[in-house]
Amino acid sequence: MAIDITSANSSLRIVVPAFYPGGFDVDDYAADNMFESAPLQSKEEMMSADGIYHAGLIFNPAEFTPYLMPTSKALALMEDWTAAERATARVFSCNAVLTIPAIGKKYNMVNGVLFSLPPLPPGRRVLQPRPAVFHFESITASAI
Question: For position 123, which CATH number holds?
Fold first, then answer.
């Protein structure tokens, strides 16, 4: 039985067709919290006046957040990306692939945006990681 569930050998590649068409690899994750995705709310619900429960399928963006050390080269690229968006008043869409060898899966992230990025790292005793929050149309798992 396999016991390897490390995140340390995962890899993330992001392609921004309008700005980084060749893409870039994300480096220098925070050790204690490398990445996460938010729960995807895919239902809307309502109760009728007589107590009958109703629910329906809805579509919402899938959120993905890598946490990057202040020294990450990818952070510098993301800062340039957001600056270019502000300068041109355009949004540059992206796609990403997260590969996690420990569980034999890759996650394809399609038609997304860099939704938020703190403009500077939190200053504590040492500079802290920054969360780069992405919203994607979909995140789909497949075998490596």
Answer: 2.30.110
